Amino acid sequence: MNPVYAKARFITSVPDPALLPTDTGREVAFVGRSNAGKSSTINALCSQKNLARTSKTPGRTQQINVFELGEGRHLVDLPGYGYAKAPEAERRRWGRFIEAYLTTRRSLQGLVIVMDIRHPLRDHDCQMLDWCQARGLDAHILLNKADKLKRGAQSNTLLAVRRAIKEAGWPATAQTFSAHKREGIDQAHARLDGWLGYDVEEAAASN
Ligand code: GDP
């Protein structure tokens, strides 16, 4: 396992993408419906308990949190969506700024979309995938909380999601994941490594 993830550290929290650190280097962003387990997923991938704060009240964290891995490499935790009780104005503001971030951020290499495996590809998830397609940005879907389903049901959902990806022509891959059981970590790291340019460096170093 690439040791950089365990060394991830929080660097800033901003209310607007315009206030993010300079748009250089490489970054990977995380989005997902509130309560899908986005914070737990970031914590599991970085082997840290409280790096991303898991929300007691879904939808409360409307900030963008930035974590630094190594030199010029960042993970960006975008606010969760789909929280039914969020005021309409707040939801519209969220849509505008996520779209602005996804379409203009040049250092953004890939988008991780965290979904609850029991409710995959909801409206906003598909909206994210459409934006990725429009911009030509790669996405990776983590079907989280896989521990809630039996193996057979997990693979059926994964197959259905992969079929939907193919039919829509989304530039995305998908896997099952469990933040609680720490399942699927290596596969997710491999995708992040590729986006963050770590595999390229390792290959160059071994030549
Ligand atoms: P966020 O709102 O998307 O950041 O979600 P959180 O990380 O705060 O998690 C929301 C709820 O889902 C919490 O009660 C977590 O304990 C639970 N959760 C997160 N990941 C998993 C998982 O892999 N399996 C199960 N069973 N529950 C999970």
The gist of it:
This protein has 207 residues and is of the alpha/beta class. 37% of the residues lie in helices and 21% in strands. Guanosine-5'-diphosphate binds at residues 32, 34-40, 54-55, 58, 80, 144-145, 147-148, 178-180.
Features:
single chain, 207 residues, alpha/beta, seven-stranded mixed β-sheet, 6 helices, 7 strands, 21% strand, globular, binds guanosine-5'-diphosphate
Poorly predicted sequence stretches spanning 5 or more consecutive residues: none
Q: Outline, from the CA principal axes?
A: globular
List each distinct ligand once.
Answer: guanosine-5'-diphosphate
Strand order within the widest sheet? 1-3-4-2-5-6-7
Q: How widely separated are the two ends?
A: 20 Å
Helical fraction: 25-40%
Task: Give the mean pLDDT.
Answer: 91
How does this model look, in words?
This protein is α/β, with parallel strands linked by helices and 207 residues long. The protein has helices at residues 38-45, 88-104, 123-135, 151-168, 185-196, 198-206, and strands spanning 9-14, 26-32, 64-68, 73-77, 108-116, 138-144, 172-176. Helices cover 37% and strands 21% of the residues. Strands 1-3-4-2-5-6-7 form a seven-stranded mixed beta sheet, with helices on both faces. Strand 5, helix 3 (123-135) and strand 6 form a beta-alpha-beta unit. The protein is globular. Residues 32, 34-40, 54-55, 58, 80, 144-145, 147-148, 178-180 line the site of guanosine-5'-diphosphate.
